Amino acid sequence: MSSDAHTPIKKQQARARTGKPRSNYHHGDLRRALIDAALNMTLQQGAGTFTLADLCRSVGVSAAAPYRHFESLDQLLAETAHEGFALLDEKTKSSFRGPDWEARLASCVGDYLGFIRAHPAHAIIMFATRTQTVDQPHFDPIQPPVFPEPKNATEAAIFSCWEAGLASFNHYAQGLALALADSPLAPAISSRQRKLETALALFTMMQGIAAQWLDHALPEDWLTHNARKSFNNIVLPWALGLMLQHQTRSAKPPKRQQS
Predict the structure, then answer these.
(1) 141-149: long-range contacts (C-beta < 8 A, 24 or more apart)?
(2) What gap in Å lies between CA 156 and CA 147, rounded to an integer?
(3) pLDDT band, very low/low/confident/very high, at 215 (cuts 50, 70, 90)
């Protein structure tokens, strides 16, 4: 086994720039090395800025080497995104903890944005990369799409990644409903549809905060200290506004019917 299996990515990249990849190169874990290279390039250059051949050069292997593991760049990125959703679920599986609804809501925001801060490249690939293989459907939390039978390994990886994303959202929706069950917000999200739509609104806000931070458009401290600044400035006012909106609507007398 080549010692290059344990060579840091940046050193491999530096070596790859100095000459052509060796055709007799054997990698200890080429699949992992290619995923790590994709994460590294995504963080340095952005989503959609490299090819599978670029990844090969970065780890010093021939252009034919990856096809034992990935038939396309889309498959590699889908499997990387799937890994990201697994990491997100691991990070947030104990979210919505605390003595009251506000603390539970704050913990969910802190855990989600803590994942973004710890795994920025995964987050970019999960939420910013668009496949060239199949068109991504619009997400509907009420009626999630049913994916067709995959025609190849690339489609199988893409569909599996999307299913992982849907599952991650559903975990959040379930946690949010439980966290707010005894809160003043509970009457506002009493139906299944309202629970899912409220979870989608929260998910959208957190993705927006994450996107701004990844674009360096938010100060660092909006994602540190359990993202308390993001919670206080964005999520909590939204939750209080939702509560006030429901109370205002409930207080209005019913319209009298004209005789």
Answers:
(1) 141/169, 141/173, 141/196, 141/197, 141/199, 141/200, 142/193, 142/196, 142/197
(2) 10
(3) very high
Tokens at 240, concatenated:
């209080």
- The CA distance from 110 to 115, in Å, is 9
**70-118 tens-digit pLDDT:** 999 999 999 999 999 999 999 998 888 899 999 999 999 999 999 999 9
Determine the Cα–Cα distance for residues 102 and 247; give it in Å rounded to an integer. Answer: 18
User: How much is the pLDDT for 255?
Assistant: 61
Q: Is the dihedral of CA 167, 168, 173, 174 positive or negative?
A: positive
What DSSP letter does each residue of 15-63 carry, written as one string? HHHHSPPPTT---TTHHHHHHHHHHHHHHHH-TT---HHHHHHHHT--T
